[in-house]
Write a structure and sequence with these properties.
Elements lengths: L6 H15 L1 H14 L1 H7 L5 E2 H7 L7 H13 L3 E4 L8 E4 L15 H7 L2 H4 L5 H7 L3 H6 L3 H7 L1 H25 L9 E5 L5 H9 L4 E6 L1 H4 L8 E5 L11 E5 L7 H14 L6 E5 L12 H14 L8 H10 L23 E5 L7 H14 L6 E6 L1 E2 L8 H14 L6 E2 H10 L4 E5 L6 E6 L2
Parallel strand pairs: 4-5, 4-7, 5-6, 7-8, 9-10, 11-12
Antiparallel strand pairs: 1-3, 2-3, 10-14, 13-14
Helix pairs in contact: 6-11, 10-11, 11-12
This protein binds S-adenosylmethionine (SAM).
Length: about 450
């Protein structure tokens, strides 16, 4: 039998239920603060605390209701969104900003105001009334409520479209600061980049501001691109990522995959694969990684986002790291008779009679190549196993068609990798011997690359 609850626990439970029951009122009072621009009013007085009459005098109304405003401010103070100071001389109370209200400022680089207006708009809140219906009948709450899916609805409603894009843009501006600090090296060797589902281009604008060498494309549905501002160094392209994605060295996708089911994500990922170069192409995904047992600052809101994805999209969800791994593996193209295996060649290479390494070893130092080759050696049969290495064989003094370009590749390897290089025949010989391959044969072709067949005995 369950131990009886103490009356203290029971009362605490009751209080929590009242809190949950009215948490929508907290959202509404926050939205009201944004609509009345209360944080902006205080901020415009040099950020110093001001009286309620000063706040009221700046509200866009001929006769604001002071008792109403007082009670709204009292709740906002209680929620730590503003501070209040009651002067000991009995003078008027003074209201100030906190670290929370700074996120409510309009037009600031770190503002969540447009997102608050979007998420608390009746059009976005109405589908939440359908949760129970969706459990019983299935379906998408947004579609049940508004008669069409979110992106289609936005394409038909310019006001909603603008509000949605503004909401996304403010979050993109915030995230871009974190990305430009935490991922600044990630953009270094990218010549061109396409932001897929990039909205009106806020994120890509920040990327080119910090990395002006990048040729950037902002790609989104035509009704979104139609409202995008001109941005220096950014080309806007309208289209459908399920059809085709513009080519670039890298695809960037922020909060796109969480809008879609696994099946749809795999379709998008396959189009990403087609859009980037086979070698050195990359896809940068900025999205939630759900931490079911986490207690980090954003772990709880990850679950709320998951619910919002369920309500507003056709199969979107937030995913754990394991789910991401599975999805990304499935995003690789499928060829008959080929299985994809994720792993680390420095750790272990799957067993086979023969291995093919095209343009792998030139990315690595001699030391690393020897580690890879030793793992190759373990993966093939001790007798009659072979490794086909497709690489440049340098002829520093040669005057063949590809000899000069070989040297250019060598300097590219030097610039882009950690001590990778192109190698002469003698260097290959030495490397193969140290890697456990006593015998090899070089097959030259009328091409930049040669085949170096290395044998296990
Ligand atoms: C959640 S928003 C993210 C916007 C932006 N990446 C950001 O984080 O600020 C999803 C974006 O995907 C776009 N989108 C939806 N379906 C699309 C499609 N089939 N092709 C291209 N973009 C699409 C939407 O128009 C929207 O701008």
């Amino acid at each position: 039998m369950e131990p009886e609850q103490t009356s203290e626990e029971l009362v605490r439970g009751q209080a929590e239920i009242w809190q949950h029951m009215f948490s929508y009122a907290d959202s509404m009072v926050l939205k009201c603060a944004v609509e009345l621009r209360i944080a902006d009013i205080i901020h415009s007085h040099d950020g110093a605390p001001i009286t309620l009459s000063q706040i009221a005098s700046c509200i866009d109304s001929p006769s604001p209701d002071i008792p109403y405003l007082t009670r709204i401010m009292r709740l906002l103070v209680r929620k730590n969104i503003f501070t209040v100071h009651h002067p000991s001389d009995g003078g008027e109370s003074l209201y100030g900003l906190t670290h929370i209200s700074k996120w409510l400022l309009h037009g600031s680089d770190i503002s969540l105001a447009p997102m608050i207006l979007l998420q608390n708009h009746p059009l976005m809140m109405a589908p939440l009334h359908c949760l129970c219906k969706c459990v019983k009948e299935g379906g998408i709450a947004f579609e049940k409520t508004h008669g069409r899916q979110l992106w289609d609805f936005a394409s038909q409603n310019p006001e909603f479209n603008n509000m949605f894009n503004d909401g996304m843009a403010c979050a993109a501006r915030i995230v871009s600061r974190a990305i430009m600090t935490g991922y600044k090296d990630g953009f270094g060797c990218i010549g061109s980049l396409v932001d897929v589902g990039g909205g009106t281009g806020t994120m890509v604008a920040e990327i080119v501001k910090s990395h002006p060498h990048i040729k950037a494309t902002n790609f989104d549905l035509p009704h979104v691109i139609a409202t995008a501002p001109l941005i220096d160094g950014v080309c806007h392209v309208g289209g459908d990522m399920f059809q085709d994605i513009p080519n670039a060295d890298a695809v960037f996708m922020k909060t796109i995959m969480h809008d879609w089911s696994d099946e749809d994500c795999v379709k998008i990922l396959r189009n990403c694969r087609k859009a980037i170069p086979e070698k050195n192409g990359k896809v940068i995904i900025v999205d939630f990684v759900l931490q079911p047992d986490g207690n980090g600052k954003f772990d709880d809101v990850g679950f709320t986002f998951d619910l919002m994805m369920m309500v507003n999209t056709s199969g979107g969800e937030e995913r754990t790291e394991l789910r991401w791994k599975k999805l990304l593996e499935e995003g690789a193209p499928v060829y008959d008779g080929v299985s994809h295996i994720a792993g680390d060649m420095f750790h272990q290479i799957p067993n086979a009679d023969a291995l093919l390494l095209k343009w792998i070893l030139h990315d690595w130092s001699d030391e690393d190549c020897i580690k890879i080759l030793r793992n190759c050696r373990k993966a093939i049969p001790a007798k009659s196993g072979k490794v086909a290495i497709v690489e440049i064989v340098l002829h520093p003094d040669g005057n063949g068609t590809f000899d000069e370009i070989g040297l250019v590749f060598d300097s590219v390897m030097m610039a882009h990798t950690s001590r990778g290089k192109e190698r002469t025949q003698l260097q290959w010989k030495k490397l193969l011997e140290e890697g456990g391959f006593p015998r090899y044969k070089i097959i030259s072709m009328p091409a930049l690359l040669s085949i170096i067949e290395a044998y296990s005995e």
